[in-house]
Amino acid sequence: MMTENRYEMVCGVETHVELATKSKIFCGCSTEFGREQNTQVCPVCEGLPGVLPVLNREVVKLAVRAGLALNCHIAEFSKFDRKNYYYPDLPKNFQTSQYDLPICQNGWLDIRTGEQVKRIGVTRAHMEEDAGKLVHSGETITTSQESYADYNRTGVPLLEIVSEPDMRSIDEVIAYLEQLVGILEYTEVSDCRLEQGSVRFDINVSLRPAGQEVLGTRTETKNLNSFSSVRRCLEYEILRQAEVLDEGGQVIQETRTWDEGRGVTLSLRSKEEAHDYRYFPEPDLVPLVLDRDWIEKVRAELPELPEARYARLQSLGLSAYDAGVLTSSKALGDFFDQAGRHYPDAKNLANWVMGDLTRLLNARQWSVKDALIQPRQLAAMLELIDKGVISGKIAKSVLEDMVVSGKDPEQIVKEKGLVQISDESALLTVIQEVLQAQPKSVEDFRSGKEQALGFLVGQVMKATKGQANPGVVNQLLREQLTEQ
Amino acid sequence: MDITARSAVELHTMLVEKEIQAQELTAACLEKIRTDDQEIRAFLTVTAEQALKQAAAVDQKIAAGEKIGLLAGIPMALKDNISTLGIRTTCASKILESYIPPYDATVAEQLAQAGSVLLGKLNMDEFAMGSSTENSGFGKTCNPWNRKHVPGGSSGGAAAAVAGDEVVFSLGSDTGGSIRQPASFCGVVGLKPTYGAVSRYGLIAYASSLDQIGPVTRTVADNAHVFNAIAGHDAKDSTSIAFDKPDYSQFLQREIKGLKIGVPREYLAEGIDPEVKRVIREAIQTYTDLGALVEECSLPHTKYALAAYYLIATAECSSNLARYDGVRYGLRAAEAEDILGMVKQTRARGFGAEVKRRIMLGTYALSSGYYDAYYLKALKVRTLIKQDFDQAFAQADVLLAPTAPTTAWAFGAKADPLSMYLADICTIPVNLAGIPAISLPGGLAGGLPVGIQLMAKPLAEGVLFQAAHAFEQATAFHTLKPAPTGGAL
Questions:
Q1: Interface check B410 vs A, CB under 8 A
Q2: What is the CATH number of the domain that holds A477?
Q3: Chain A CB within 8 Å of residue B327 CB
């Protein structure tokens, strides 16, 4: 709903996601990101005269996996088509895509906004090839003296996922994107590296007076690559359209582009200027016929999806918040699950994973995958605390060591001599020394100041370099102070 | 007989028996090219140095006592739309005048494997669009039988080079008759294989769903041997068929007694030259004499084939030729102000009139609002034409028809594009149906060769060789030669 509730927004999203294959969709070139320009090309992806495409089976498998995770119907018969348009980042001046018979159709996913759960329709998902990248000496292709084309990305497999226009607020759009990206990550269909442009969004949005059935005229803003850009773009575009409507004007159906720097959308081309893509069946590829049993096999191999994990974590006794955090980062959630196999107290484990471990990772700008610590090592460390071998405080430094060194906690404790002192006779000697050195605190405690005990415990811990068992120290101190 | 006029089968024996050396043979062909091709102009590029090296390698093998294949040391050339690594491949278009492919077409690799000696690249109608080779961006090729006449097209260079004894065989491509019609006009044997029987990888596309590469030879036996070398599945071509490839030469000696030959009446209707009809009647008699059972049959949708072809082929070409934009290779209009201007001027300057005409036709046929009426309807006609052939082949093993309605016409005689399109009326249905067909010499009319065309079911090239070889042995039209001067009108 709009801020002033005069208009209702209607939004649908087209998501282009790079599939996590090693090689391109129609040739054997590597899909690795960030290599030197035009080093990952061959005659096929360069579209040289006479070359022919050969479909990469892995692309089909990932597309089917994504489709199944999005509750789509998987077509046993689909085909490729050519989308014809001229642009120098497209070496053949047509893109091989899927038009009227896409591989996935009629799916959905559920999104959560606050307590609300809403089902968003997924119209279709189809396979296609990515275009190359242009680098201009100036601002744009028309204003530059020189433009350079890098075809490393040409032929990288994409899945275009088209939603129904089911979203009615910016929060719903963001929730949809988060949920979608989560599913794609969970199924390992894509690396979903948004910052590298491996997921891009086209946002279709229109406004209509609150209560009206008929849809308003929409605009499509292309090529957004972060959730925050989508949010800002929608905020701007809704306001822009509302102003047009407020003034009695009409929104023009057009394609727009997002200017990140200025935070505005700009007109790219109107409906009249829209391309006639002259789609027709790709004659160089045979239709794609999938075996029902094979599709079912892919379904059986699907991993646990975000919604299922979210529910399961709550059933382990975690709060909705904790379950949400451990679901939204698949890597952290996986780490939690793996550690959980070796450690029964889910809540305690979650506190460590989301607390100290996350803090250590954030300080280094690491993902949990970058850290050397293994999930079972964290479990082992928690066991050491529970058995009283180390204190929670010591454990924090042990954890830091584990994150960077990957050593077992037992080894770190042993090497650094961090074993907790619980031996009463050893501790009594230290306590006697502290009591003698701190007569004022002793006096304070005896005159009723409870806090003085805390100070004295701290002194004992300091004297033992933190290795004393604080519980035992507390008990012994109290005994000593009340005895005399 | 001049050694350059001999068949690959004969030359193979001579090489193995050490009567000649491969280098001698190659040198003889290069000399023939040097003397005759100034006038015939079948070649766009001659690769003499490389050819002599390839021949020397074959001679070394023979000298070392190694067994060589039938095509080893045999001089040949490729139509200039077949990509050759490091050798200019132009499609006879100004837009690709300077283009040198960084890879070999699968067929080029296969022939190199077989030890054949590549003498160069052959002229054609630009991007294989035409029926006379007059649409070449680099000048016309003459018919060796009469140098005032066209060699046919689009594989005019491929047919003229073989007919003129400049090479022993060549490879052409056939989208609507581009191997068979020039073979007919030049009095040689040309095979359009089953769609998918020969890899298209490296064949610069005109119309992808119709294009096929095939051999042009002076004898049916040679044709079978070349087809042996190039047929088969290729992982680089998704439309190529995985099938058990027989040795096609084993079909040559088979009798044709009892072979059922259908003669579709639609191919002898109006517009077919009476002399061509005479040749077909004589061929029917020859086959009857050989014990074949010849019967008339019908392919009722033939009359729609030409229209369907010119929608499907042009639609595909409008997309296939989009890549020639001056951005990466070939011609570039460098003085243009911006990218759009560069693309427009490059294409305006680089493409010839016929190519532009077909790109425009195809763009129109695929345009929003016209797609269903044109392209989709053409696909439906294509299905009907396929069904016609299915029904005909339920009764007949082979169909016999003219290859072309006329003999080779004089240069400039068909200036109107539509009359040129009509010249393909006998060959186009075969491409739409994806079936194989062969054209072989059926006699002369007015001193010019007339081809007869045999068609068969998909992957039944064997029966084509069988029927064609029997006819060739019975008639010996293949031994007829153009006069050394090329004759006058």
A1: no
A2: 1.10.10.410
A3: yes
Q: How close does chain A come to B48, measured CA to CA in Å?
A: 25
Residues 6+ apart with CB under 8 A from A43: A50, A51, B101, B102, B103
Fold for domain B3-233+245-265+393-479?
Amidase signature (AS) enzymes (3.90.1300)
Structural domain contains residue A23: yes
Collapse the DSSP code of A329 into the 3-class scheme (helix H, G, I; strand E, B; otherwise coil) and give the result: coil
User: First CA to last CA across chain A, in angstroms?
Assistant: 72
Instruction: Please state whether the peptide bond connecting residue A163 to the residue before it is cis, i.e. omega within 30 degrees of 0.
Output: no
Contacts with A266 (C-beta within 8 Å, 6 or more apart), sequence order: A256, A257, A258, A259
Catalytic residues of B, which ones?
79, 154, 178
| Residues B362 and B340 sit within 8 Å (Cβ to Cβ) | no
What are the boundaries of each domain within chain B? 3-233+245-265+393-479
User: Measured between alpha carbons, how far is B152 from B180 in angstroms, rounded to an integer?
Assistant: 9
- Rounded (10°) CA dihedral B238, B239, B241, B242: 10
Tell me if ipTM is over 0.90. yes
Task: Tell me the C-alpha to C-alpha distance, in Å, between residue A98 and each of A73, A356, A483, B371.
Answer: 16, 48, 86, 17
- CA gap A60, A298 in Å, rounded: 11
Which chain A residue is nearest to residue B339, measuring alpha carbons?
A142
Closest CA to A107 of A164, A160, A60: A164
Interfacial residues of A (vs B; Cβ cutoff 8 Å): 43, 46-55, 82, 84, 86, 88, 91-94, 141-142, 147, 149, 276, 278-280, 283-286
pLDDT in tens, B237-273: 999 999 999 999 999 999 999 999 999 999 998 889 9
Residue range A167-196, pLDDT digits in tens? 999 999 999 999 999 999 999 999 998 888
Of A262, A295, A328, the last residue of a domain is A295
Rounded to the nearest 5 degrees, what angle is found at the Cα of A335, between the Cα atoms of A329 and A340?
125
- Nearest Cα to A266, choosing from A257, A275, A274? A257
Distance CA A275, CA B367 (A): 10
Say yes or no for a CB contact (<8 Å) between B367 and A54. no
Mean pLDDT of chain A: 93
pLDDT score at B415: 83
Minimum CA–CA partner of B209 in chain A? A283
Cα–Cα distance for residue pair A376/A397, rounded to 1 Å: 17
Work out the number of other CB atoms within 10 angstroms of the CB of residue A262. 9
CA distance A415 to chain B (A): 59
| Total number of domains in chain A | 3
Q: A422 versus B411: which is more confidently predicted?
A: B411
Among chain A residues, the shortest Cα distance to B235 is held by: A54
Q: Are residues A329 and A446 in the same domain?
A: no
- CA A172 to CA A151: how far, in whole Å? 36
Is A50's CB within 8 Å of B202's CB?
Answer: yes
CA angle B252, B289, B256 (to 5 degrees): 30
The pTM assigned to this predicted structure is 0.90
Per-residue pLDDT tens for B52-92? 999 999 999 999 999 999 999 999 999 999 999 999 999 99
Question: If you average pLDDT over residues B196-201, what whole number do you get?
Answer: 98
